[in-house]
């Protein structure tokens, strides 16, 4: 085995991998190359497989070259990429064997995904690959604009077409606020060892007329418990972790994690205004040890003229990611008040907190500013009581921590019931369902809730009692396999309230 034809390094934690694409769209057999990237220096290594790869896809009479996405599997030591652009049209999923230097088209996306562009791809520790798409047509509904897709990496010996039937849309990313449509345009994803998904993204905004420019850079997280295991059409919860203001107006296109939890971001930096045709783009690499902060890795450069790194990947799954900063918010309603508590593990670095509230999980406004206390201690707990006695329904809260460095980090979003006795916080999951549907119910007090499933004719087909506690409850409706395929209504009833939601039986 030559030094260039080698298995990916998934154990030492010394390197990640970058995929480089010929920005001229080469029509010869050299459009894509894969190289190791040293975590410490940022230096790019030799060609993986000892060669460049011809990555192309034909749609009609048009050829599309190169790729902007890559993941690497520690199960079979293959690199997985998706063909570039081809909108509208299917994309090929290609497995690259770095030892044989060969490529295999293991899957082709279904027609339903023709109008999506996939530049965000990673292989999770469970062995499946995941990708996030963006719809190229802004007239499409926001609730189907950014799908999370999963597909199989086909075990130890991937064969042609082995992943096609496994390509599954699990749901869609949130549609509100700074996550709306093209606000999640470019970027990449990576996983920790527990399977939590981290998503760094560069927004794409309209400047004037039809001129689009890259703007805000941010980091989000999807908890592993919120990633559906089967196909669905629901909204997948996602939390904003931090703003990366130092990378605003750049083209974030890749992230990777090392074993210590540091994050590495590849991007392209403009030499001048983005809307100026004379402005050029230069590839750069950054390391982020804590949320919101970056340091340029000066040892990085693209080894080949006209090639630019378009994605990062690794097969390292850390136990903690950016672990030196985390804000966790919890809350409950009590006699018209929202009692909020938050904890953090780097209290000595915080300048002040802003408690923010929203009525729709979209537009948050600051309702209180709290100075940091106990600043000699690394961890601390804070609390705040928000009087919401005049408000019926539920409110959304988050905490924005402004660090002494000026970086701003965010907590998770807490949904607090103020007046309603019962609220369906999430579910059904999955949707469509096969045999079991899971829900999260929020209640003001301990009570028994009646769960009823009603078919399209209005007939009751299942009923059960649920013993629920005050606060959040995870409940399951099981043994649904006997139901016929179609649409159902799920009712949750208390003595004086009925909440309904739709469920699709597969």
Features:
506 residues; mainly beta; Tachylectin-2, Chain A; Immunoglobulin-like; 3 domains; five-stranded antiparallel sheet; four-stranded antiparallel sheet
Question: What is shown here, in short?
Answer:
It is built from no helices and 37 strands.
Q: Which helices and strands appear, and what pairs or packs with what?
A:
Elements: E1 15-22, E2 32-38, E3 44-47, E4 56-59, E5 62-65, E6 71-72, E7 79-82, E8 92-97, E9 102-108, E10 116-123, E11 129-135, E12 147-151, E13 168-172, E14 186-191, E15 197-208, E16 211-222, E17 239-243, E18 254-257, E19 263-270, E20 281-288, E21 295-296, E22 307-313, E23 327-334, E24 337-344, E25 350-358, E26 365-371, E27 380-387, E28 394-403, E29 408-410, E30 414-417, E31 422-429, E32 437-443, E33 447-454, E34 460-468, E35 471-477, E36 486-493, E37 498-505
CATH topology of the largest domain: Tachylectin-2, Chain A
Radius of gyration: 24 Å
The major sheet is characterized as:
5 strands, antiparallel
What is the CATH architecture descriptor of the largest domain?
5 Propeller
């Amino acid at each position: 085995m030559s030094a260039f034809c080698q298995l990916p390094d998934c154990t030492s934690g010394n390197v990640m991998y970058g995929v480089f694409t010929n920005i001229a769209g080469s029509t010869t057999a050299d459009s894509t190359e894969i190289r190791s990237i040293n975590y410490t220096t940022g230096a790019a290594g030799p060609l993986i497989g000892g060669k460049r790869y011809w990555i192309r896809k034909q749609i009609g009479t048009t050829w599309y070259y190169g790729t902007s996405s890559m993941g690497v599997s520690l199960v079979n030591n293959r690199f997985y990429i998706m063909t570039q652009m081809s909108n509208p049209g299917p994309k090929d999923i290609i497995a690259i064997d770095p030892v044989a230097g060969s490529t295999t088209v293991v899957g082709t996306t279904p027609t339903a995904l023709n109008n999506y562009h996939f530049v965000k791809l990673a292989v999770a520790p469970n062995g499946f690959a995941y990708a996030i798409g963006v719809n190229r047509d802004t007239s499409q509904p926001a609730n189907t604009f950014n799908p999370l897709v999963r597909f199989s990496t086909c075990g130890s010996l991937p064969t042609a077409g082995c992943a096609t039937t496994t390509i599954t849309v699990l749901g869609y990313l949130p549609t509100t606020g700074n996550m709306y449509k093209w606000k999640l345009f470019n970027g990449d994803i990576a996983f920790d060892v527990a399977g939590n998904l981290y998503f760094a993204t560069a927004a794409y905004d309209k400047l004037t007329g039809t001129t689009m420019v890259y703007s805000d850079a941010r980091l989000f997280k999807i908890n592993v418990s919120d990633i559906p295991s089967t196909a669905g059409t629901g909204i997948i919860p996602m939390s904003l972790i931090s703003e990366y203001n130092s990378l605003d107006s750049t083209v974030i296109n890749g992230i990777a994690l090392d074993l210590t939890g540091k994050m590495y971001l590849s991007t392209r930096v403009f030499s001048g205004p983005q809307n100026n045709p004379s402005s050029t783009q230069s590839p750069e690499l950054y390391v982020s040890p804590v949320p919101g902060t970056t340091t340029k890795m000066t040892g990085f450069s693209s080894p080949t003229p006209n090639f630019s790194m378009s994605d990062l990947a690794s097969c390292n799954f850390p136990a903690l990611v950016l672990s030196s900063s985390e804000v966790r918010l919890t809350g409950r309603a009590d006699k018209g008040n929202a009692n909020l508590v938050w904890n953090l593990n780097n209290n000595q670095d915080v300048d002040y907190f802003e408690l923010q509230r929203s009525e729709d999980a979209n537009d948050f406004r600051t309702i209180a500013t709290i100075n940091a206390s106990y600043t000699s201690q690394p961890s601390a707990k804070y609390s705040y009581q928000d009087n919401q006695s005049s408000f019926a329904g539920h409110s959304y809260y988050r905490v924005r921590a402004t660090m002494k460095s000026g970086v701003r980090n965010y907590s998770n979003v807490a949904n607090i019931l103020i007046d309603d006795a019962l609220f369906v916080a999430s579910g059904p999951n999955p949707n469509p369902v096969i045999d079991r549907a899971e829900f999260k119910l929020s209640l003001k007090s301990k009570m028994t809730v009646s769960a009823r499933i009603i078919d399209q004719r209005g007939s009751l087909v299942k009923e059960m009692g649920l013993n629920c506690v005050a606060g959040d409850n995870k409940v399951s409706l099981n043994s649904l396999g006997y139901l016929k395929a179609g649409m159902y209504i799920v009712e949750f009833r208390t003595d004086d309230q009925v909440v309904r939601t739709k469920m699709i039986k597969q």
